[in-house]
Amino acid sequence: MLSCYDVAKYFLAQVDEDAGDLISNLKLQKLVYYAQGFHLALYDEPLFPEPIEAWTHGPVVPALYYYYKEYGVGAIPYPKDVDFSIYDERTKSLLDEVYSVFGQFSAWKLRKMTQEEEPWRLAAQTSSQISHQSMKEYFKTQLNCEEAV
User: Fold this and answer.
1) CA 64, CA 25: separation in Å to the nearest integer?
2) For residue 146, is pLDDT > 70?
3) 86: which of 7, 116, 121, 130 is 20 to 30 A away, CA to CA?
4) Under 8 Å between Cβ of 85 and 6
5) 80-87: long-range contacts at Cβ-Cβ below 8 A with a sequence spacing of 24 or more?
6) pTM for this structure?
């Protein structure tokens, strides 16, 4: 199993700085959340073990947030220690798809999107942790929507 840091590094390694791309901590949190959600929906198992919590600005992996906190609202640089051999083809495909679909949006757009989704709304009302079960149920409905199009 990967860690949240592995998933984050994969996304950070996709950034094309020459094209003006950047990933802030806020945006990274949402990409990692979407990766976890779709992985749960597709494969019925978590992509990484670290918990996701419902914070004011949407879903957050606290360990990951504190790891990249020093960058504030600025861009997180390209990771120097990313090892692409740890990602199998199924995982690469999923992460590439998540980045392709959601990486185009700004951090604030992703924040708004995640706050309108059931897993965050449920956890924000009841407890701070977003359950794997609520993510799996919600993201299964998103898969069905995409297949119907």
Assistant:
1) 9
2) no
3) 130
4) no
5) 81/9, 82/9, 82/10, 82/12, 82/13, 84/13, 86/2, 86/6, 87/2, 87/6, 87/10
6) 0.94
